[in-house]
Amino acid sequence: MATPPPIRGGSVGEAELREVRDIAWPAPAARSESPFAQGVRRLRRSTTAVIGAVIVVLLVVTAIFADVLAPQSPTVSDQSHTFSRPSWDHPLGTDQLGRDMLSRVIYGTRISLLVGVSSVLLALFVGVPFGMVAGYYGGRIDRGIMRVMDLILAFPIYLLAIILMVIFTPTAGLIGTMKVTGAIAIVRIPIYARLVRGSVLSIKEKEYIEACRALGVRDPWILFRHVLPNCLAPIIVTTTLGIATSIIVEATLSFLGLGTQPPTPSWGWDLKANVAFIQANAWLSLFPGLAIFVTVLGFNLFGDGLRDALDPRLK
Prior knowledge:
Elements (H helix, E strand, L loop, with lengths): L11 H5 L18 H11 L1 H18 L1 H4 L31 H37 L1 H15 L3 H12 L4 H31 L3 H8 L4 H9 L4 H24 L11 H8 L8 H27 L6
Helix pairs in contact: 2-13, 3-5, 3-13, 5-6, 5-8, 5-11, 5-13, 6-8, 7-8, 8-11, 11-12, 11-13, 12-13
């Protein structure tokens, strides 16, 4: 084996250096923060988002442990204590049937969150696939789906919800709650379909989508593996804000007598039943109204914080 030629040129010290890596300290690998970690960091720094998150967590805890937190049954009436003012026995007073208002407000949290979250999730699971298919394939499929969504959007949200509840016939109990959930979900489906369609129209023209097509990747895999993750930010924000809107719609339907029917506790129904006594017994309508206000405020604050945290333009 031939020996390598001697090193010529340079100083003697340079010639004696065998390998630079033997004397150089390895540079530490730079760690890049993931987009999720950046979003969480921005979310924690947002005061409004933190306040909204605290309110939402308290509402969820109240709904889950309503059986423990409520001092009495929300449906049991006591004719000897009708229109009782707030006291130690009844912190929020009693209504015209002698039912404890604090218990009804606590159990109403469960109904409002159940309808709000379930209706938004149902609309999400229906509207997102329609929007993805319409935006990705375009053509007749896009026009057909969007014309149906435009037809639904042609009706004001409250008017369409009222029409649907008249068709469904409001009832009490779990069945009545499911009817309200379905009516609100149908109203909100076009919102997610149009939102996702707009995002897909811009994403499908990206280079990595073209590369997937060139490699022969099937369309369902492209949609759910590459397109959908890039649409999650606006979907999450719209979902959070949509829960607040759904809660307002449920309370409105109940106030009009088309939502959850008694004896199921509902903030909207309590407002309807007690509005006639608002001059002499203002607390009967005050506390259900405050419950709606605080709930909607919490979800709106949290949604605004999520929008700022998930905005890639904010660093």
